Amino acid sequence: MATDSGAPFAQKLEGLISDQPAGSSLLQPFYGDSEIFEHDMARIHMRRWLCAGHASQIPKPGDWFRYDLIGESLILMRGSEGEVRALVNVCRHRGSVVCSAASGHSNRLVCPYHGWVYDSAGKLRQARNMGDVDLSDRDLATVSCRVIEGLIFVNFAPDPVGLDHAESVLKQSLGRFGWANAKVAHRAEYTVSANWKLVTENYQECYHCRPAHPEFSRFHSTERPEEKTVDLRQGAAELAAAQGIKIEEWDMWPAGKDDDQEGVACANDAMYEGSVTGSQQGDPLAPLMGDFRDYCDGFFTYVEVGPSSFFLAYPDHGVIYRFLPRGAQRTDMEILWLVDAKAEEGVDYRVEDLIWLWDVTSIADKRIIENNQKGVNSRFYVPGPYGLMEDMTRRFAAWYLEQVGA
Ligand code: FES
Ligand SMILES: [Fe+2]
């Protein structure tokens, strides 16, 4: 890790922050300098709540999957009592990685180096030929882990910011969509050759939707605020209310001054007439989820928690978006598609239809974000102004500067 507080770096950062024009995209080094990237990871990703996946990925005791981020590795494991823990994937003997596979099932984790054995709670159970060495404090370390409406959140910090605001928003939104009783129908990963902030900025505005996403814009009202978003959003709320479902909008992201809580935002947008979900023709894709009893000319709800976890909910399916920084100019975008746990593939839904919209949209996003990075890398790039449809992006940039400058 680069020197977080070394004097030359601190001076460089301070200089950049004071040169940064207000209300504009960030100065070039913020989008590619490797020292700044390391600083971002220490100041943001190691301190905020991150969605690691969905509980249905580990349904039975002993099921686990690995979650790797910027040199750290966790084992998300379901213990014998059904609880989910985030075990640190570092052996307490001499530090080997314990699990090398991406996922697995076992009631015992065996370190491949000298064979120390841990149980599904990370407790050390066997360590042969260690004589009278005290092994009472040699269990696998854990980091904070919370499961909310089926979403597994982790936080690497010893004393994490609160998640209570996020929890109440997730319960009143994704809870109604039945995400706790969902299953992952498909997973896809898109590697984006761009800094993580260009990816997050892109997902906080729909200014780009008209030129980049004709498939999305055909049915979703998000890209037309100047015409009738207010009415359409109101319409979305009414459509939900007609089914007895009230999903309130919240905007507590970025956390800003109340920085002892993770940021969270939730909004409902309408979909145009004839469209009940995010599909190619607007027609249903899968059985209804949660409290929904009818398909109707529809709406969708989107929620974001922290710096890199985004959720989209339709009445019949859900989409989890996670951005995993891999380097100063590389980010993996991982998507999980959810359907009701009882839905059967090939009978109740077809994967190719289910993923069509957000696959085509993600491929387009990868292209435009990579183009953004290429232009930002030019010697001729200068920060440009955020517009009316980029208010969330503007706030994200301001929050980011506050976080790294603190
Ligand atoms: S490092 Fe794991 S058993 Fe030795
Ligand atoms: Fe997009």
Strand content: 25-35%
Total number of distinct structural domains: 2
Q: In CATH terms, what is the fold-level topology of the largest domain? A: Naphthalene 1,2-dioxygenase Alpha Subunit, Chain A, domain 1
Ligands (ions, cofactors included): FE2/S2 (inorganic) cluster, fe (ii) ion
- Distance between the amino and carboxyl termini: 18 Å
Q: Please tally the helical runs, counting DSSP H or I stretches of 4 or more residues.
A: 9
Q: What is the gyration radius calculated from CA atoms?
A: 22 Å
Protein structure class: alpha+beta
Binned, the helix content reads: 25-40%
**Highest CATH level, the class of the largest domain:** Alpha Beta
Number of strands: 17
Protein model, in words:
The protein has helices at residues 7-19, 34-45, 164-172, 196-203, 209-212, 214-217, 229-241, 351-376, 391-405, and strands at 50-54, 63-69, 72-78, 84-88, 103-105, 108-110, 117-119, 124-126, 142-148, 151-155, 182-192, 250-252, 264-270, 299-305, 309-313, 318-327, 330-340. With 406 residues, it is of the alpha+beta class. The protein folds into 2 domains: 50-146, 3-layer Sandwich (Rieske Iron-sulfur Protein); 163-405, Naphthalene 1,2-dioxygenase Alpha Subunit, Chain A, domain 1 (Alpha-Beta Complex). It has a 7-stranded antiparallel sheet with strand order 1-10-9-4-3-2-5. A hairpin with a 2-residue loop joins strand 2 and strand 3 (72-78). Helix 4 packs antiparallel against helix 9 (391-405). The relative contact order is 0.16. The model has no long low-confidence stretch (mean pLDDT 93). The site of FE2/S2 (inorganic) cluster has 10 residues, from loops. Residues 91, 93-96, 111, 113-116 line the site of FE2/S2 (inorganic) cluster.
